[in-house]
Specification:
elongated; 0% strand; mainly alpha
Length: 91
């Protein structure tokens, strides 16, 4: 944060206040610290807001959910290497 100009510092403080109002002091401060540790000072407010939502939602150490199985879509829509680029059609 030492590299931020006056406008950047003002924006960072405003962002911390917004996060404080939304998530509380612990989440606001820990998310700001995490963004700084990850060296994402450019776009600090966006990165810190994302980290704050993640901390408040399920924590930084929790693995992301695997999501839906997309194999059916892949088979239907992606080119198949053995057919010369034609869409794959299951037999």
């Amino acid at each position: 944060m030492d590299d931020l100009n006056r406008s950047g510092l003002r924006q960072a403080l405003r962002m911390v206040k917004d996060l404080l109002d939304r998530y509380g002091l612990d989440v606001a401060v820990s998310s700001l610290q995490e963004a700084i540790v990850r060296r994402r000072a450019d776009g600090l407010s966006v990165n810190t807001a994302v980290i704050a939502a993640r901390v408040a939602g399920y924590g930084l150490d929790t693995a992301a959910s695997p999501g839906p199985d997309m194999r059916l879509y892949d088979e239907a829509l992606l080119p198949h290497p053995t057919t010369g680029g034609e869409p794959y059609r299951p037999q």
